[in-house]
Write a structure and sequence with these properties.
flat; mainly beta; four-stranded mixed sheet; 13-stranded mixed sheet; single chain
């Protein structure tokens, strides 16, 4: 029997399946669904009987453990079968619960939310598919209600939550229990250190020239009796700046919901961090599945790397994707990590420059009470 550190266990209806020919298990920040692909080839017995593989079918609820630790909860998504006179081969693909949120559109009867927080909206749209939102150190103010959110026709649950997350500084990912995790961008010590010549089998790095970058997110408010249409258009903007090397870029983003100054400030910082994370992308391969801590690596774990050959020594890397593999070449883990700073260098909230039409109507409109006349209870409004 193989060592527990190199064993993949799939549990279906209380029955545990092991002894795979190959295993590929992936967790990623994009796409968020955890996937596991397993293959097994069995010799056909004298009576034509085969073993464990035929007992697994699409739709079966399942959990997957790697090295004795829970990796994902979900169901068998796909099954492929092939056979000849001597062998019977089966390949099954497992998908975590979050695939339901990725595939499921939101019913139009739930087409709008007024004064709902992110958590309340998530509970409303995730509940019907049996998924729970789990906050993990969310940022301050993440529970601020949205004044108004409109659902796009055919929009999926995950797409909705993903586009709202930038206004609250939340990063979404799939956790091992099948929940949707809402994580803040909190700094922490690296969970693992990788050093050239010590615990790295292979590595590669892509470094891009980082320009001076400015990202502005401009939005508008819904109209009211106290404002004019010209005032509502382009009412606020948020701007995030980051210093670079030898050239500048200026990006403009239009908000897709009615948003105030703080919402747009948060969104611009979110977009800037997403852009900055692409400056350095590192691929690391190491032996086995577990880290030196004895844990499986997780998406958004922070790691450090010291590799003179890559000209890279930093602890500002966060895992964007982790892939566990096992085949004839052995048991290995591949990490894709990106450089990630704690926060944009400078984030501002400003009112954008107004057009001439907006300036001409810049005086707030104060409605006056209606004039009435007539006997009490039968007044006529003029």
């Amino acid at each position: 029997m193989p060592k527990i550190e190199e064993t993949c266990e799939v549990t279906i209806n209380g029955k545990v399946f092991r002894d795979w020919d190959s295993v590929t298990a992936t967790a990623s920040s994009d796409p968020v669904v955890r996937m596991v692909t397993l293959s097994v080839t069995e010799k056909v017995g004298a009576n034509g009987a085969v073993g464990q593989s035929l007992q697994i079918k699409p739709g079966d609820a399942a959990t997957v453990k790697l090295a004795g630790q829970l990796f994902a909860a979900g169901h068998i998504h796909e099954r492929q079968v092939a056979y000849d006179a001597n062998n019977h081969s089966v390949r099954v693909t497992f998908a975590s619960q979050i695939i339901k949120a990725v595939k499921q559109s939101i019913p139009l009867k739930d087409g709008e939310f007024k004064n709902y927080s992110f958590q309340a909206i998530a509970n409303k749209v995730l509940g019907p598919v049996g998924i729970t939102l789990k906050p993990l150190n969310p940022p301050s103010g993440w529970d601020k209600p949205f004044k108004y959110v409109n659902i796009e026709p055919g929009e999926t649950i995950f797409n909705l939550l993903s586009r709202l997350s930038k206004y609250r500084g939340i990063w979404l990912h799939d956790d091992k229990n099948g929940n949707l995790a809402a994580r803040g961008n909190t700094d922490k010590k690296p969970t693992a250190e990788f050093v050239e010549g010590r615990n790295i089998l292979a590595a590669s790095a892509l470094a891009q020239n980082a320009p001076d970058t400015s990202i502005s997110v401009t939005g508008q408010q819904r109209g009211s009796d106290n404002s004019t249409p010209a005032q509502n258009r382009g009412a606020y903007s948020g701007k995030a700046d980051a210093k670079g090397s030898n050239y500048s870029t200026d990006k403009q983003v239009q908000a897709d919901i009615p948003a105030d100054a703080e919402d747009l400030k948060q969104a611009s910082g979110y977009c800037q961090l997403l852009s900055l994370s692409q400056q350095v992308i590192v691929r690391i391969v190491y032996q086995g599945w577990l880290l030196s801590s004895g844990n499986l690596p997780e998406v958004f774990d922070q790691i450090s790397i010291d590799s003179p050959m890559l000209m890279l020594k930093t602890s500002d890397l966060k895992i964007a994707e982790v892939t566990f593999t096992q085949d004839q070449a052995g048991t290995r883990t591949t990490l894709i990590a990106q450089k990630w700073i704690g926060s944009p260098v400078d984030v501002q909230s400003t009112s954008p420059e107004q057009t001439d039409a907006q300036k001409a109507t810049s005086t707030p409109v104060t409605p006056t009470p209606p004039t009435t006349d007539g006997p009490k209870g039968q007044e006529v409004i003029f």
